[in-house]
Write a structure and sequence with these properties.
Blueprint: H1 8-30, H2 36-56, H3 64-89
Helix pairs in contact: 1-2
Length: about 100
């Protein structure tokens, strides 16, 4: 099996990017963006998770089969989030008669 050697420079760059994004997340949390707070926070979280998966979990240089399983994992996560949100968003539809 052939392995790709990742230079320490890339690891340091990704570490700095993750640190900067963490500070940005903290800074945005202090701002009042209304309903956009959650959207901005989730966008930053997705970017950070993508960096971690691609570089620290070595998916970027892995085989296509690994990419398929990572994609399947994200697809399953999307299904779970959709089901959870569909339950949460429809809770107010039914009213209980007293």
């Amino acid at each position: 099996m052939r392995e790709h050697i990742v230079s320490p420079k890339i690891y340091y760059t990704i570490f700095i990017a993750l640190t900067v994004l963490t500070v940005v997340t903290w800074s945005v949390a202090k701002l009042d963006l209304g309903k956009m707070n959650a959207v901005v926070a989730m966008t930053i979280a997705v970017i950070k998770a993508t960096l971690v998966v691609l570089y620290f979990m070595h998916v970027r240089y892995s085989s296509r089969l690994t990419w398929v399983f990572v994609g399947a994992g994200f697809f399953w996560l999307a299904i779970m989030v959709a089901l959870t949100l569909s339950d949460y968003m429809t809770r107010g539809w039914l009213t209980i008669a007293q």
